[in-house]
């Protein structure tokens, strides 16, 4: 097999060496290209669409969340405002009671104050002080502590400064014995009567954080969100983690909040995104600040995130699978085709190529199959021709020493000798000798036309003597033709035919004319006789080979035609013209080639290789 | 080749998956509160405002970080054995973290090592413990607190006179009768405060620390010790107390006896102490941050569970409070817990 392979495809490209080239060519495979492109494009589109969707939805979600939060804070703001108004009303009630009372130390006033305190859980203490800080009246049963330093406390100073109702920052109530409590103080300069005298004093009411706490607790801003209250100076009035802030463990960035009375913004100062909403209470200047954690409150966004993540991964997975399948669908028939063709390339010409798949690939496979068939035909033809050539040459070889002809000729010589025709004997023997010399011509296949014409002349001489001058002959040739080359022994079979089939049975004298000339770079040899001629059918049979020129004494005419065709090409060869009772003309045409030694060489080489 | 392609595809998918998911799910950077953590807090004593405030802080953190807080303390600060038993019980109950305010520096060292052996992290709060396995210490600097106390008392005494100190839990200086070993059985914070006070007082040649008494952390005992001290040293001009119970006991004695000439610097900020301060019985008090201690201890405990890095030592600071500055807003915030 390997030898055959080399024979059929000597120039077959060698397998490339080196892994790098192989990998890179693998990367260029159709399947990979399709998979990659398809996936990339689809994923890109999916991602872009997702991002656009996400942005759109996220924006809406964000706006909604923000709005929602603002509404919540607005609500708290409203409630707190109500509460502050309530505080103010209580304060005004108390003020009225103190001012209208005929004397501050009356039992009625003290009872009323007691009632006021009892009515509200969030009032810690009620008291009136002189502008100097002296205690005038207060909740029954309260005892002042020592060292209260009340004249330095903010509620006292601010009440003295303005005649408005003042709300203090949260502070410790240290005036009275009992618990130290965190309170917000409301204070104002008021008038009161003592012993019939109208005096100025400061009314103080302390509120604890119970109600504010409750109000603020209602705020639900996600799991971690909260609301806190600042006073106008930035002190924290209320914070769900007030103690932590007081202890310095937590820190609330109040500066950006303080600058605005009404604001909503996104804060990232802590590293986390937080929505901050600020509202301000008109009366106290307190600010309510809602803090919501962005990723908590914008849950839609997170859901969307998750959904899109799932969606995208599903799409990508799907696309990858589809593109792999699709590319496999396209690429695998091609790969199969390639594999089959590779088998063919390795020399197995009988590999059937039946690749199913895409239309184009099937067509390609079909065409390839046809091509393969044609190759097979040509191969067969080549083999046949080679065989025929060999056979022809063998026959030529045989005809070189044709025993039948020799025997007949020698018989004739004997007869002539017996009759004492010495001259003719000599002529015959001489011709015979030359005839054979040219026949053999040192085993060469190609001889000059001169030699070939000599050869046929000697043949005719012999035959003429044998047939007792039954025919005449004439050989003419142009001078320039003589040195051209020809395959040997192409004339003898034709002349033999003419003699045996055309002239022998003829009653009259026969005539054979042989002329050779050069015509348009072609050698044209015309052999004509005036013999019996032949029918059209016989003529056809001569070349197609139904009739084996049966008499067997010569090399077949068909063989001559075949040899010329094989040697010079199929367009050259013999043509016949024949008319019954008129004669036959055979024309041999082949290209004119000068006799050269090296012209034999390709032939020899071919011989070698075909052996 | 087939398998190679398969793995390649899988790799591609995985890569894409991570890219996509990383775009959308960023890990939250706050401490997750989805999981309940089991933290045991063992302090020195189950009474006293100080420990209540520590507990308050711990509970605030517990609420914030979704911690199941188990709060344990013996009846007395000097009951070391009971505290050891409590730590052992917590180890048995497989606490996630143990927060310990050790009554004895060396006495609890062994049991802390034992906890570490069972892979339970231990955090010290308020008082350190003699073990290298403690993850972090949250508390004030006792030495500094002692120095502050001494500085103010000597200032009040104009730099001369006899001083008596009432401290708590015995240190090795004072042989404990039931103790059989020679190790340092005192509480670390008590030792430090005393050392700080004495080192500062030593700079003043006219100041003499005439007696150091140790109370077993109940007020009656502290009162008795104070009375005894006053009897023994009639020329006593100043008293420094180094913890809450001692302060309360001593202040009660001074108040009841009407000894206005004796200056006193107390420790910690119980409401009754504030009242005494406001009334002038006590001239100053050194306060710590019990709320912060409790809060931070639990917070760091959670961080330890989360595998975060925690600082080795967290000083929550001390402050000297007197009548003048007790109503300053920032001091109000420290002195009075914001209780609703």
From TrEMBL, chain A:
Pfam families: dCache_1, HAMP, HATPase_c, His_kinase. It comes from the Bacteria. Keywords: ATP-binding, Cell membrane, Kinase, Membrane, Nucleotide-binding, Phosphoprotein, Transferase, Transmembrane, Transmembrane helix, Two-component regulatory system. One of its GO terms (cellular component) is plasma membrane. It catalyses: ATP + protein L-histidine = ADP + protein N-phospho-L-histidine. InterPro entries: Bact_2-comp_sensor_kinase, dCache_1, HAMP_dom, HATPase_C_sf, HATPase_dom, His_kinase_dom, Sig_transdc_His_kin-like_C, Sig_transdc_His_kin_internal. PANTHER family: SENSOR HISTIDINE KINASE YPDA. This is histidine kinase. It comes from Paenibacillus monticola.
TrEMBL record, chain B:
Residues 41-307 form the Periplasmic binding protein domain. Its main location: other. GO terms for cellular component: cell envelope. The keyword Signal applies. One of its GO terms (molecular function) is carbohydrate binding. The keyword Cell inner membrane does not apply. It holds the Pfam family Peripla_BP_4. Residues 1-22 form the signal peptide. Keywords: Signal. InterPro entries: Peripla_BP_I, SBP_2_dom. It is found in: Cell envelope. PROSITE patterns: PROKAR_LIPOPROTEIN. Belongs to the bacterial solute-binding protein 2 family. PANTHER family: D-ALLOSE-BINDING PERIPLASMIC PROTEIN-RELATED. This is Substrate-binding domain-containing protein. The lineage of its organism: Bacteria, Bacillati, Bacillota, Bacilli, Bacillales.
